[in-house]
Amino acid sequence: MQLRDTLSYSPIASRFGTSGVRALVRDLTDLEIYCLTLGTLRYLVGIGKVQAGNLPRELLRIPIGGDLRPSTSRILIATARAVLDAGYQVDYMGRLPTPALTHYALGKGIMSFMCTGSHIPVDRNGQKANRCDGEVLKSDERGIVEAVEAVRQEQYRHAAENSKFDSVGMLKPEHRGGLPPVNGDAEVLYMDRYRRVFPQGRLSGIRIVFYEYSAVGRDLLPRILEQSGAEVVRAGRSDQFIPIDTEAISDAHLQMLSQIVAEQQAMHGRIDAIVSTDGDSDRPLIIGVSDANDSAKPHLRFFPGDLVGVLVAEYLGADSVAVPISANPAVHEHFEAKGLTTTKTRIGSPFVIEAMKRALGEGKQRVVGWEANGGFLVGSEMTLNSGLLRPLPTRDAILPILALLYAAAEQGSTLPALFDRLPRWYGRADLIDEFPQETSRKILGYFQSPREAVQWLDFRGDPILLRDQSEAIIGELPSSGPRGQMLEGKKRVLESVFTEARGFGVIERINLQDGIRCYFRDGDIAHIRPSGNAPQLRIYAHARTQARADRITEMAVAKPDGILRELQKLIETGPAC
Which stretch of DSSP H or E encloses residue 526? Predict the structure, then answer.
């Protein structure tokens, strides 16, 4: 009897999100992780991206690491089993930040596996693979999926009694094994990366609260801050995994952090900032603390990741910037005023990396990119503070934290004062959780671009202008023609939920590069996009006041009849154009 005939469940293949594979833990059986790992390895062998050198397979040690989720231990063991069965050795780096693992592996010219669900809820997890030369790209995903499916079918055909897996898809005890002793070199090299370019002692006199909770970098990152001279107060450590999305920090989390700051001020005195990261420590959380007299109720100011990136890019002297289309308009406005055009990409680090590679090919020297969550990527080698900062083309949390603190210290400024110099655009993000993914696909399908090259629909006149990613005109459609009427009808569907009664003007432009991003005549921007990692529908709002950006997101996710739910009903019932 084959293994497939004995399985007591229906296997669900994992899917790629914006970066890496994510799924419900119940679906991430040992069998699924094993097939994912072995298939990824086979694909990377086929394209020559497992190692940069020519070591014999049996001597090559594949780095693996993980976050602090309770399910990660099992996923690490299944990953290690597949690595060993592929003929390699396992270089176990322990529980550490994703960028620390990636930095180590890229330095050795070896691919790696990080077992993490990042910021998503604890009932989900995943795995992120890196090639020997950087992150797995979107162009790799199809090949990986095909290789994984081939491995899956091989495993299903094995005789059940000879299979490594039992009827529930878990490794049998005799095949489970353990993990090697932790190799701490990745943490040492990661610390050294920043010691070389951020002078020690420069942050002397600055007191920072590091919110530990369940971030995997909660031990390592405070040490990096301390080697720069800052006084670091650790607080909020948790033995339970807490999912925090640093891109959409909730009011409840801010209130909790405010209480932590008040407690630490009572014990230590002035607090300059509170910092942390997401679960796998590749996205920063940076919050300024005011000098208000009422220390019992300190005023906190959350700094959005897309605006954090602006100041980090300036500190690094970047001559090329790539950010997702969802970024705050202040990013583009700020750099355009300085004669630097930003490249707008789809959401996800692989797209930012592709844009950085193009910039390098065009001769740019100081190439950077970041995501709206603040995860910062360095695409080129560059000098910084008489040291050499090497490329790290993956999301990183500690670089933006350090760069902001150093910029403020060197300019004799506060963190809020740095941000006050940027154009006055305000943003807020929120989401509906457990939103049906099939409905999300229907929404995107309904508003899909007329053709692949068209990324912008411009309704500011007649004809309707069709523009590419760079906003160059590549077509025109008369509003009175059949195709023009169809687009006008779809715009009216959006205007039927983004109504005048809710404070919106008419829609002037729509960007379809990644989701549906609406630009209104009154200056508001609303961007609807399904999560790439979870069954969630997100709303990104930007406006000229924080109150308006907050109000847009409130109206979007309101129960039971907010904007997103109204749009869901319209699409499910089939709107007429």
Answer: strand 525-530
Q: Which domains does the chain have, with CATH numbers?
A: 3-186 (3.40.120.10), 206-302 (3.40.120.10), 305-420 (3.40.120.10), 426-573 (3.30.310.50)
* CA–CA distance, 221 with 391 (Å, rounded to integer): 19
SS (H, E, C) 252-300: HHHHHHHHHHHHHHHHHCCCCEEEEECCCCCCEEEEEECCCCCCCCCCE
Tokens of 385: 């503070």
3-state secondary structure of 30: helix
Q: Other CB atoms closer than 10 Å to residue 301's CB: what's the count?
A: 15
SS (H, E, C) 457-508: EECCCCCEEEECCCCCEEEEECCCCHHHHHHHHHHHHHHCCCCHHHCCCCEE
pTM reported for the whole predicted model: 0.91
Q: Quote the CA–CA distance of 115 and 121 in Å, as a whole number.
A: 15
Q: Tokens representing 346?
A: 């789809």
- In sequence order, which ranges of 127-280 are alpha helices (DSSP H)? 138-157, 173-176, 185-195, 220-227, 251-268
Taking residue 509's Cβ as centre, other Cβ atoms within 10 Å add up to: 19
- Beta carbons of 506 and 494 less than 8 angstroms apart: no
Q: What is the pLDDT of residues 390-431, one digit of tens each?
A: 999 999 999 999 999 999 999 999 999 999 999 999 998 888
- Encode pLDDT of 302-349 as tens digits: 999 999 999 999 999 999 999 999 999 999 999 999 999 899 999 889
